[in-house]
Amino acid sequence: YESSDGLGLLEFLEWCHDLHMQPVLAVYAGYALDGMHIRPGPQLQPYVKDALEEIQYITGPITTKWGAVRA
Questions:
Q1: In a domain, 62, yes or no
Q2: Is 35 left (phi over 0), alpha (psi -120 to 50) or beta?
Q3: For residue 31, what is the DSSP state?
Q4: What string of DSSP letters covers 3-70?
Q5: 25 lies in which domain range?
Q6: Total domain count for the chain?
Q7: Average pLDDT of every residue of the chain
Q8: Is residue 28 in a domain?
Q9: Are 56 and 27 in contact (CB under 8 A)?
């Protein structure tokens, strides 16, 4: 979700590091509490893409698209 409070993913990870905490990140798996779900396949693809980009943002070198955004 979008937030404008100045605490993004990078700031969250830095905060965890400063306080010697282990961050826990989660990704949407296509399920909801109301019984609705997204079937594996093309409908789930945008969420998979977001998760992969999040991993690249966190761990990727600055030569990658999202690693450069982080840097």
A1: yes
A2: left
A3: B
A4: --SS--HHHHHHHHHHTT---------SB-TTS-B--TTTTTHHHHHHHHHHHHHHH--TTSHHHHHH
A5: 9-70
A6: 1
A7: 90
A8: yes
A9: no
